[in-house]
Amino acid sequence: MFRSKALCFDHPVMRRAARALGTCVSRSPVTVGYLVLLLATHLWCTAVLSTAEAQRVVLGVSTHLDNLHDHPVRVLAGSLLFFDGTLTEITSEAFAGTLITLGLGVTVCLAWLERRYGPGRAYGIFLLGHLAATLLTVPVIQVALAHGWYPDSVRHAPDFGISYGAETVLAAGALLLRRARWLAAAGVVAWPVLGGDWSGVLPDFTTIGHLLAAAVGFVCGAILLRAARRTAPAPVPEAGPVSEPGPALVE
C-alpha cells in the first residue's frame, strides 16, 4: 500500500505539477503567501465560525460609511484579508466572481506583475486601487444619499474584499499585453458593468468602485508601458550590401 502511494506521487503528471508549483512559489512568493492567507481566512469563516460569528467578522471589516468614519485604518486593512465569493457553489454568480478576482486577478495578474516588476510595484498597484476606489466612492455615496438615489441602508451595507485591488491589477495587466490588449481592457470594464445593478439613477456603488479601480489600473499600466518603451534598446539597423569602391576619377 505504501509502495502504491509512493508510485502515485512519482507519476510524471505529479512530478510536472510539483515542478510547476515550485516555479510559482519561487517566482511569485509574495502572491503565493497572500493566496494561502486569503484561503485560510475564507475557510475560517465558512468552516470554523458559525454563520452569526462570520457575519460579525464580515461587518467588522466592511468599508461602508459608518466603519470608514469610525475605524478607517482597521477596515481598509482588514478588508484585504478576505474575498467575497465562494469556492463550492460552482454554478453561482458568486463563484464566477471568485474566478475573476481570486483566479484571474490575484493568481494570474498579481503574480505576473510580481514576477515582472517585483513585489513592491505589484502590490503598490494593488493597494493603490483598493484604497483609491474605496475612498473615491465615499463622496459618490454621500451625494447619492443626499438626493435619495441610494437607500439609507447603504451607510452600513456589507462591503469587503479584494475585488477593487483585483480589478486594478486586471486593468494594468490588460494594458501591458502585447496582443488583444484592447479586447482584454474591454473585458475588464464589461465585468462590473454587466454584473452591476443599474436600477436607479446611478449604478450601485460597488460598480462605480470597480470602474474607478479599473481607471487606476489603466493609468498604472500606461505608466509601466511607457517606462518599458523608454528603456527598451533601440533596434539595430540591418547592415546593407557593401558597395565596391569605384575607380578614381582622373582630371
Mean pLDDT across every amino acid position: 86
* Alpha-carbon Rg, integer: 25 Å
Q: Tell me the distance between the termini.
A: 100 Å
Beta-strand fraction estimate: under 5%
Shape: globular
What is the SS-derived class?
A: mainly alpha
Helix content: over 70%
Low-confidence stretches: 246-251
Q: How can the largest sheet be summarized?
A: none
Please count the helical segments: 10
Number of strands: 0
Order of helices and strands: HHHHHHHHHH
Task: Describe the secondary-structure layout.
Layout: H1 2-9, H2 12-27, H3 29-48, H4 51-61, H5 65-70, H6 72-78, H7 93-146, H8 163-175, H9 181-195, H10 205-231
Helix pairs in contact: 2-3, 3-7, 7-8, 7-10, 8-9, 8-10, 9-10
Features:
mainly alpha, single chain, disordered C terminus, 251 residues, 71% helix
Model description:
Helix 2 (12-27) packs across helix 3 and helix 9 (181-195) runs antiparallel to helix 10. The longest helix has 54 residues, at 93-146. The chain has helices at residues 2-9, 12-27, 29-48, 51-61, 65-70, 72-78, 93-146, 163-175, 181-195, 205-231. The chain is mainly α and 251 residues long.
Give the gist of this structure.
This protein has helices spanning 2-9, 12-27, 29-48, 51-61, 65-70, 72-78, 93-146, 163-175, 181-195, 205-231. With 251 residues, it is an all-alpha fold. The N and C termini lie far apart (100 Å).
